[in-house]
Every structure is written in C-alpha cells, then in structure tokens.
Write a structure and sequence with these properties.
Length: about 475
C-alpha cells in the first residue's frame, strides 16, 4: 500500500526502551538473591565471549536511580524491564525475599515519579537454578504451578501501579537455544525434549495470563515473540513452499498458540509424523484456550530468506556469528523443509543480521491480519561496535539511521491499519549480550564496561540519545 498521507502516531504512544535483569542488574548474589541458570551456565568455559558473566553486568541494581534520571532527561514514555525470578524467590518458590521486592518496588516508583510507564517482563530467561536442579526446570510440568505462583506474587505486589506486563520473553529463543542447539542453559540438544519443553512453557504462559485477570483486571498482558518473517529466495514454487514451511514451524507454531490456543495443523502433522510432537494431557488444550493475550509483543530485528532443502543430504545445523566478524554465519535448515539463503537486496550488520526496516512493516501486518491483536514492539535495535571518542562522544549515526528507518515503517504499518501500542528500543543503556559480551552495544547510553579488567561503569549519552529525545518530543514527527 502506498499512502498519499500517513497517519500520525497515537497521542498516548509508548515511546520506550527495554532491558533484561541478567543483562543489566549485576548484584548476582547480593541481598538474598538466589542463583539463576545463567549464573551457573556462564561459568562453563567457552560458553560466552571471553568468559563474560552478569555478576556485575552494567551495575543497574546499584545505579537504577541514575539510569531512571537519564530516562527522564530523554523524555522516555515507557521502560520495559524484567524481574529476576531468583531475586524474588531464591529457591524458585517458597519464601519471598523481601529485599528483592523492595528493589523492584523502588524502581517502579522511581519510574512513575518521572512519568515513565513501567512495563514488567515476568521471565527473561533467568530461571532459578534450584528449580533446574530439583526437577529440570521447563522439562517438568511442575514449572507451570511455580511460575504461576511467582507471577501472582508480582501481580499482588505491583499490580496497583503496573498496567502493562509481558509474560514470557522470546519463548522460541530460550527453548530452542536451551534444548535444540545447546547455546543457552541447560545446554541440551534433544529435538523431542525441545518441543515438550516448549509445550510446558505454553501452558505456563496461559496459566499466568489466566491468573492475571483476577489480580490486575484493568491491566494488559501478552508474551513477547522473536518474530523473523520469512521470505522465499526466488519466485520458484519450491522456494515459496520452503518459506511457508519456515513460517509455519518457526512462527505460527508459537503465535497461533498464544492467540488461538491451538497448534497449527501442518506443523503438528509434520512433527507427529517425525515423532517430535509434544505429549498432551487432559485439560491442556482447554488451558491454552484460556490464555488469550491482550496484545502480541513483537521483538523484531531481522527477516530471513529461505530456499528448498533436499531431504537427503540437506543442510541442518549451521553456525551463528557470535564474534562480530561479518560473513562467518553458515546456512542452517531442516532437511525436507527449508534452508537459509542470502538475500542480495539486504545489507547485514557485523553479526550477519539482515537490516530490513520494511520487514518490520511485514511483521506488523502479518500479526494484525492473522491474529487481530494490538502489537507492542517490545524490542528492536542495532547491536554494533561503538567507540567512545577522545572528546567523550559516541557518534552512532548508524544506529540513528537504523531506528529512523524502522520508525518510518511503523508509521506506514499504522497507516495500513495496525494497532500499535508502543516501541521499546533495545536497549536504553549498553548491556551484557548473552553470548557476545560487552562488545556488541545496543544502548542510547554508553557504559564503560568491557570483557576484561575492572571498569567504572560511567554512563555517557550517545548521539542517538539526543536524537531519540527529539523523536519522542515530537511524537514521531521529527526524524
């Protein structure tokens, strides 16, 4: 659609930024916090870039008031952050750690004091290690009750002030990386277990949304999904089918369950034939039906292009670029379904992620047309090598160009009929990348933190900080 005139952003649009507890807080074993799966996993040699950990991260636990002051200076309308489950329940369940409650209570109040809408994520990958050791964490149905009890505690404590909640962050990533390619905890490679773990997460998500209705009746809740829209490599039907296969198994497999409470038929039939479909128990489908969200959270970074992949001798597991050396990613796929292919029309980042602002418009329209749900962009941003110049400035014009182009696509999507609630740029400050250390920087605020040595964590506003401030002030008119 080409519009003669674009619709304006809504007056109450949530211009925001985002973070995750493990990536920013630090204070990994302070004031009663229990161990998380990531606290354990990063201590395995070779799992992270130069052995980086979140022990200190960027020190947000001690410097949250300074960070919120910077948000207020920018004019931020919303801040999405996650709660560390093990900071609230050190053992994953049982006794509440009141010091943990106090921290998030203070953070929420500080945000509200500066007219910044808190958006609370219940789970952003840091599972209490005690639950992993007791019953395998997401491998057991016991997680459903424990995650619901933990979430309910947060609803009771913060629901009077927090309107927007995200249930699970990128369920497709933490299940896939934890149980399919072993790059995240618990470091398992087991396709059958991957699909079973994912089913348990679906049930936990639905259970929490159902409980939410009783405790925060005026609030809004939804999952955030890492959606990478699929394109065919060519107009050949075999590549179009490969793209459809990827969309079905990599996207509909999750979002259909969130929105409709049922698995997509083509994907289910395929997995059942392969002996990979999850085992269902009585009442599962009914619970999934009761977990319809108020919005779909969208974490959008890139699109992916696919081509046909032969059943015999086809490509399977590829190789991710976790070093920032462009061109080191290797094709991946599923024999008989699809394989990734280069898209010559798109540029790439140093981490080989495609740069495709129009892909965001595609994602927003597909979600809107298929699910008829409002969308909150819960993550979108550019990770790059940022340099602090001798004059104390960070001239990240490339980040400004990236975000500007994506905001333009958002406005086009709104003009197409998408109901867009807000835009949470990843991230406000620089933070610890799960696998890439501190070298891959996303923030509007530079943090003096690196992989090696002790650093003072000094905050420095980047050029993009001042630019995004003007975007917010003009409600998206000044780009």
């Amino acid at each position: 659609m080409i519009h003669k005139e674009l619709k304006a952003f809504p007056q109450n649009f949530l211009w925001g930024a985002a973070s995750a507890a493990y990536q920013v807080e630090g204070a990994w074993n302070e004031e009663g916090k229990g161990l998380s799966n990531w606290d354990q996993f990063v201590r395995i040699p070779g799992k992270t870039f130069k052995g980086t950990t979140g022990d200190t991260a960027v020190g947000h636990y001690r410097r949250y008031k300074e960070d919120v002051q910077l948000m207020a200076e920018m004019g931020l309308k919303a801040y999405r952050f996650s709660v560390a489950w093990a900071r609230i329940f050190p053992e994953g369940k049982g006794k509440v750690n009141e010091k943990g409650i106090e921290f998030y209570d203070s953070l929420i109040n500080e945000l509200i004091k500066h007219d910044i809408e808190p958006i609370v994520t219940l789970y952003h990958w840091d599972l209490p290690q005690a639950l992993q050791e007791e019953y395998g964490g997401w491998e057991s149905r016991q997680i459903i009750g424990d995650f619901t009890a933990y979430s309910t505690e947060l609803f009771k404590r913060f629901g009077d002030r927090v309107k927007y909640w995200v249930s699970l962050n990128e369920q497709n990533i933490f299940t896939m990386f934890g149980y399919r390619n072993s790059m995240h905890p618990p470091g398992v490679k087991d396709d059958k277990l991957f699909y079973q773990v994912n089913h348990h997460a679906n049930l936990a998500n639905a259970s929490v949304i159902k409980a939410f209705r009783s405790y925060v009746p005026e609030g809004k809740i939804g999952p955030s999904f890492a959606y990478t829209p699929s394109y065919p490599r060519s107009p050949e039907p075999k590549d179009i089918i490969a793209s459809e296969n990827a969309e079905e198994l990599n996207s509909h497999w999750w979002m259909d369950v969130y929105a409709w409470g049922k698995y997509p038929k083509a994907a289910w039939d395929y997995l059942e034939k392969e002996g990979l479909a999850p085992s269902l128990e009585a009442g599962d489908l009914e619970l999934l039906q009761e977990g319809k969200p108020d919005f779909m959270g969208l974490n959008y970074y890139q699109t992916a292009t696919f081509e046909a992949n032969p059943l015999d001798g086809g490509v399977s597991e590829g190789e991710m670029n976790t070093t920032g050396k462009k061109g080191t990613t290797k094709a991946s796929g599923v024999p008989g379904l699809y394989r990734t292919a280069d898209n010559p029309s798109l540029e790439k980042t140093n981490w080989d992620w495609t740069i495709d602002p129009q892909g965001l418009r595609v994602a927003l329209r597909r979600i809107t047309s298929r699910y008829q749900l409002p969308v909150l962009i819960s993550e979108n941003g550019l990770g790059e090598f940022d340099k602090l110049e001798e004059d104390g400035k960070v001239n990240d014009d490339y980040r400004i160009a990236f975000i500007r182009a994506h905001i333009q696509s958002m406005q086009e999507a709104i003009s197409d009929g998408v109901e867009l609630l807000g835009y949470c740029v990843w991230s406000f400050t620089d933070l610890l990348s799960w696998l890439n250390g501190f070298q891959k920087r996303y923030g509007f605020v530079y943090v003096n933190q690196h992989e090696e040595g002790e650093h003072d964590l000094k905050r420095t506003k980047k050029k993009s900080f001042y630019w995004y401030s003007e975007v917010i002030k003009s409600n998206g008119e000044t780009l």
